């Protein structure tokens, strides 16, 4: 009997039922999607000051409490999305050879140690998938004294990783290869414990699929960047997710990663300027072209934003092959952009409440896929969110 299918199905039903509150593009909306269906929620959002919005964005528990008045399913959804903290199996700060952490950024080092500490020791050789410079592999090789094969696409990273491993005398072999290439399957073996720390979207999915096909003994992954996929839309893995009514676009898949990380005042101000300029230009172009669709504008050099809104519009119009008339009241459209920004922020506040539940839908889909392939699966967090918001670990081992 699957451990996760009930939770997945309940979460799936609630996410489907409430999709009007999260599955939309705030940028493309000129009013709240629930403007008429739930005016009380719209009024409450409009009554919030910018500071209230900022505070609630940083305090999900308070946000759920406030939103539950309008969306009473939210506490239950968060209950379903709640997963245990994985207990460390080995020491979080093991005795390691000197110099092992050289060149590893502080937070990455903490992630690597925390990930290592919750991994069950199967005394098997390790396969590190999308290894970067093999930071995790270094700790695995040193702590478990077993061989590590580290596969990575970027040659410079494999070279740096290999030379650091050689200097440290660690039993690590880097393989420079594309994880998607059919030949890369040859590094995946039955007698192995495969790991992937923050391998993006299809990269960790392809590992799970190949591990299941090869009957590899164990695999532990920490998923990230769910939207980095080769198809246009999400391809569900497990039978319950295939049956689900939810169809997830890349825009939906970005949602779990948009959790607000506390930004400084300067970054917040820069974002306000850029987003309100974009929205102001969008309102202007809609007015001129009578086309109601949102017109995306490419990335902009941050220096251009300093020249003001009118220059931004001239640049954006050029990018889009649009002729702007001489007599535009730029102050009016800038104000419109700023008003739209405030609306977008409030829509994002509502979507914020669905981020972790949606992430757990994706995580349980992976867990159910591995269970169906005959693996015993556990899901939990391996570190606190300030160390990394992508703190979920899926561990699967073949049932004996
Ligand atoms: C987010 S980084 C994670 C690196 C490392 N696991 C860590 O946690 O520090 C993802 C890594 O995947 C690698 N990568 C991207 N596409 C790849 C591919 N097709 N095949 C192999 N590696 C790939 C990138 O070069 C990058 O080093």
TrEMBL record:
Keywords, comma-separated and alphabetical: Methyltransferase, Transferase
Domain of life assignment: Bacteria
Keyword Phosphoprotein (UniProt): no
One GO BP: methylation
Annotated Methyltransferase domain residues: 123-231
GO molecular function terms attached to this record: methyltransferase activity
InterPro entries for the chain: Methyltranfer_dom, SAM-dependent_MTases_sf
Transmembrane segments: none
Protein name: Methyltransferase
């Amino acid at each position: 009997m699957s451990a996760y299918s009930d939770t997945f199905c309940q979460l799936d039903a609630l996410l489907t039922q409430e999709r009007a509150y999260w599955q939309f593009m705030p940028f493309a909306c000129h009013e709240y999607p629930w403007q008429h269906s739930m005016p009380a929620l719209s009024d409450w959002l409009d009554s919030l000051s910018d500071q209230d919005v900022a505070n609630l964005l940083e305090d999900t528990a308070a946000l759920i409490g406030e939103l539950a008045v309008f969306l009473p399913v939210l506490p239950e959804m968060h209950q379903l999305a709640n997963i245990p903290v994985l207990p460390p199996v080995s020491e979080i700060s093991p005795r390691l050879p000197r110099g092992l952490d050289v060149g590893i950024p502080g937070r990455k080092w903490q992630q690597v140690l925390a990930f290592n500490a919750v991994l069950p020791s199967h005394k098997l050789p390790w396969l590190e998938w999308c290894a970067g410079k093999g930071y995790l592999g270094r700790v695995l090789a040193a702590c478990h004294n077993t061989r590590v094969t580290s596969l990575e696409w970027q040659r410079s990273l494999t070279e740096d990783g290999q030379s650091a491993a050689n200097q440290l005398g660690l039993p690590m072999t880097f393989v420079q290869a594309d994880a998607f290439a059919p030949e890369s399957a040859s590094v995946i073996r039955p007698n192995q414990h495969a790991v992937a720390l923050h391998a993006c979207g299809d990269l960790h999915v392809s590992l799970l699929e190949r591990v299941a096909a090869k009957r590899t003994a164990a695999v532990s992954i920490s998923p990230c960047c769910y939207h980095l996929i080769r198809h246009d839309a999400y391809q569900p893995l497990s039978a319950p997710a295939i049956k689900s009514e939810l169809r997830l676009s890349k825009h939906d898949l970005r949602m779990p990663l948009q959790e607000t990380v506390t930004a400084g005042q300067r970054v917040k101000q820069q974002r306000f300027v850029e987003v309100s300029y974009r929205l102001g230009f969008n309102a202007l172009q809609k007015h001129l072209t009578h086309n109601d669709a949102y017109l995306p504008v490419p990335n902009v050099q941050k220096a251009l934003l300093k020249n003001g809104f009118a220059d931004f519009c001239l640049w954006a119009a050029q990018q889009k092959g649009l002729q702007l008339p001489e007599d535009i009241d730029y102050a009016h459209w800038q104000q419109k952009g700023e008003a739209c920004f405030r609306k977008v922020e409030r829509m994002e506040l509502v979507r914020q409440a669905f981020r972790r539940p949606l992430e757990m839908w994706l995580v349980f889909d992976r867990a159910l896929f591995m269970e169906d392939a005959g693996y015993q699966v556990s899901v939990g967090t391996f570190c606190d969110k300030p160390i990394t918001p992508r703190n979920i670990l899926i561990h699967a081992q073949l049932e004996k």
